[in-house]
Structures are given as structure tokens and as C-alpha cells.
Design brief:
This protein is of the alpha+beta class. The protein contains 1 helix and 7 strands. It has 2 domains: 1-71, SH3 type barrels, CATH 2.30.30; 76-112. It is 35% helix and 29% strand. The mean pLDDT is 84.
């Protein structure tokens, strides 16, 4: 397996798609991974010595290892740069569109 405890991972598919977290535990026999803050389920617990109050607790459940992708620091930086480039391109296009609309309004006012 390429994933190790402590790796930062991103969920590829499922209800938690796109979320990122740190690997807490690996279940090799089941090919599952426990990720911090991902696949949180509610579990009903009876009161016992360790948990005297009992009740409904929110606990992370393991997800299949194929639904997880390892994040490297380099990839994360590249994604940020790409996102910024997209934003700047969008801003440039919106500015151009606004300028065209403004120039058309001026032309129509001048012609009246």
C-alpha cells in the first residue's frame, strides 16, 4: 500500500468527495483507512466504565483505500497556482465585458 499513517489524503469519491484529512489508522486486511474528520457517523453507546454518560457519539468510520488519494506538498502548491490563474483570467474577462457594456452605453447616449 502506498498510504501510510500520518499522510495527508483527499477523498476521491463518495459523500465526502473533496475533503482532506490525515490518516489515523490503516486496516490492512480490510483495505480500509481511518481518516481524521472524514466519514463521521453517529454511534449509539451504552453507558460503561470508560463512557459513563453514554448517548449518541460522532465517530469516524473507515473508508475503502481506493476512495482516497495521497496528497503531496508539491501537488497542493500546483493546485493553488492553477486556481489563482483561473481567477485572474475570469477577472480579466469580466473587466473586458464591463468595459464593452460601458462603451456601448456611452455610444447610445451620444447618438441620442
Amino acid at each position: 500500500m502506498k498510504i501510510k499513517v500520518g499522510d495527508n489524503v483527499r477523498v476521491i469519491t463518495g459523500t465526502n468527495k473533496g475533503k482532506e484529512g490525515k490518516v489515523l489508522k490503516i486496516f490492512r486486511k480490510d483495505n480500509k483507512v481511518l481518516v481524521d474528520g472524514i466519514n463521521v457517523v453517529k454511534k449509539h453507546m451504552k453507558p460503561n466504565r470508560t463512557n459513563e454518560s453514554g448517548g449518541i457519539l460522532e465517530v469516524e468510520a473507515p473508508i475503502h483505500i481506493s476512495n482516497v488519494k495521497v496528497l503531496s506538498k508539491e501537488n497542493k502548491k500546483e493546485e493553488k497556482v492553477k486556481a489563482k490563474a483561473k481567477e485572474t483570467k475570469k477577472e480579466e474577462k469580466t473587466k473586458e465585458v464591463k468595459e464593452k457594456k460601458a462603451s456601448k452605453k456611452k455610444e447610445t447616449k451620444e447618438s441620442k
